[in-house]
Amino acid sequence: MGSKEIRLGIMGMTEGNGHPYSWSAIYNGFEKKFMDKCPFAGIPAYLNKQPPHTFGIEGAHVTHVYCDNRADAEDVSRSSLVPNIADRPEDMIGKVDAVICATDIGKEHVKRCRPFMEAGIPMFIDKPMTDNEEDLRTFVKWHDEGKHFLSSSSGRYNKCTEPFYKNHDELGKLMYVCKPMCKKWETYGIHALEEVFPLLGEGFVSIQNTGSYDRNMIHMIHKSGCDVQIPLSMDMYGAFGSILIIGSVSNKYITETDSYYAFKRQMEVFIQYLRSGSRPYPFTETIELSKLVIGGTRSREEGGRKIELSEIKER
Asked: Does the reported pTM lie above 0.90?
C-alpha cells in the first residue's frame, strides 16, 4: 500500500478479550471519560499510563468497527474514537483497506475471515490463527492462493525478551525454557508459545500435555535438544510477563509488565507489512505455532500422549 492513508476495520469481541478497545485506541487515541468505564479494567489501566504522544501509527486509523453485539461496537466507537459502526462485517468491504479480526477463538476465524479473504482484503488475525487441523489447511490454502494476512500474539513483542531473540550467546546453548501462562490453553497458550518461539526458531518436534483443561502441563522438545515447559492454569494471573531461560553457561529470568509496548509493536508490524508487502516472519512459523496449539489440545484429550508435530498435516 506504500505511503497511502490506511483505513482499518476492526471486528470483535469475545469473552475476556477487549482488543477492539485497546487496538483501536493505539491507532486513534481515546476518550478518557468513556474508556475509564471499559468493561476490561486492565485496558484503561495501561492506556492511562501512556503519554499522549505515544498514541497513533502514522497514516493509519481504525475507521469502522463491528461487534456481534451492537452495544459493544457503540461503546468501542465512543471510547476509541472510531467514527463508523458496521451492522455486518461484510458492510466494511469497499470502505476499508484492511481488517483486523480481534477475536481470539481460533475455531471461529475461518468463518469470520472468509468474506474478507474472498474479497482480497488484507487481514490481521488475533492469536491463535486457528486451533484445529481442518481450519489450518484452509488458511494454508488461502496463503498458497496469494491471500494477504498476518497472525501473531503480542508475546512475540515483549519488550524485555525481544533483545534475546537475536543475541543470547552469553547464556550458551539453550537447554531449558519455562514460560508459564494463565487462562485457557486454546486461547492463551499461543501467548506463551510465541514468546518462546523466536528464541529457538522453527524445529519443534513434539508436544505433550499431561495436565487437565484447567491445569495444563506442556512439555515440548525442539530439534536443538532444548526442552520447553509451559505450565498453564486458569487463574494463574501471576504468570503474565515471566519467562525463565537456562543455557549451558548462564540463565536469565525476565519479567515484563508493559502490555502497551507489545500491542503497539504488533500493530506497527502489521502496518509495515501492509505498506511493504513483505512478511516480518515466515508463514511457516505461523503454521508450526498453530500445530503446537492443536497438538497441545490433542495430547491432553488423548490422555497425555506425546504428539509428533509431523502427525498434524497442513496440506
From this structure: yes
